[in-house]
Amino acid sequence: MPELPEVEALRGFLAERAVGRVVARVDVAAVSALKTYDPPVSALGGLAVTGAARHGKFLDLDVDGLHLVVHLARAGWLRWSDGLPVHPPRPGRGPLALRVHLDDGSGFDLTEAGTQKRLAVYVVRDPADVPGVAALGPDPLGPEFDGARLRDILAGRRTRIKGVLRDQELVAGIGNAYSDEILHAARMSPFAVAGNLSEEEVRRLHAAIRATLAAAVENARGLAAADVRREKRGGLRVHGRTGEPCPVCGDTIREVSFADSALQYCPSCQTGGRPLADRRMSRLLK
Fold first, then answer.
1. What does the pLDDT look like over 208-232, one tens digit per residue?
2. Which residue from 253, 256, 252 is spatially nearest to 176, judged by alpha carbons?
3. What whole-number distance in Å separates Cα of residue 12 and Cα of residue 223?
4. pLDDT value of residue 279
5. CA-to-CA distance for 164 and 156, rounded, in angstroms?
6. Among residues of the chain, what percentage have pLDDT more than 70?
7. Quick check: 158 and 167 in contact, CB under 8 A?
8. Contact, 267 vs 145, CB < 8 A?
9. Which of 87, 175, 257, 277 has the most CB atoms around it within 10 Å of its CB?
10. What is the pLDDT of residues 6-45, one digit of tens each?
11. Residue 283 has what pLDDT?
12. Which of 19, 271, 16 is nearest to 161 (CA)?
């Protein structure tokens, strides 16, 4: 799933390539991706792209005061082309959801792999009209996200810290991959109870959040859209690396699998050398 660093990279890419161009037309290949109908997506035609923004994992193109807001979900992506096909695409079951043509012949496709279609497109007058945007917690790279704000978010919560980091209403933009990376950098178990963290642990976690995300954003800065995902995979130290040696201590990276996801961690760095139970019960093996 594209997370904060990848969406920020796409925002920067579109700011460079699309801002200043006029939307020639928008082709809808998957009606199910459209979540709003007033104003209609056709209202974007003839308007200029004036800005590109990010709200958590949401990508936002300002088109003369209307906003094309996109959530790429788990398997969505943006594919740029300097020369899009002239003829409208055929609606069907393929990966294409939406195509945006710009006045110089360039533009981009919004695509989604797999059979579960969750990519969401909104055309709104204000990004806050998108329920997911309106409900977002603070941006972890924003100035308001200091140690005190994180402490307030964690206070009294009896949930696991891994889940807290992924909860978009608490902290915006972090998903499964970067929560693994952050917890590894913070030397913290993914099953630690959020409200039980000490002041030192909160400080360490805050530093890891900021440093991990800032480094990922910087590594992806200036990349073409097609190269952003490759950069993400290459930069991950524990997520998706089950069975490989930890780059910090050399211990074997372990995995805990759930119904629709998995997490990775290093026992020596994060759990005192003890492997976590690879079952849905979030407790340590005795």
1. 999 999 999 999 998 888 888 888 8
2. 256
3. 9
4. 61
5. 12
6. 97
7. no
8. no
9. 175
10. 999 999 999 999 999 999 999 999 999 999 999 999 999 9
11. 45
12. 271
Quick: pLDDT tens for 86-130.
899 988 778 999 999 999 999 999 999 887 889 999 999 999 999
Q: What is the pLDDT of residue 284?
A: 44
Lookup: tokens for 193: 């109870």
Report cis status (omega within 30 of 0) of the bond before 190. no
**Band (281; pLDDT cuts 50, 70, 90):** very low
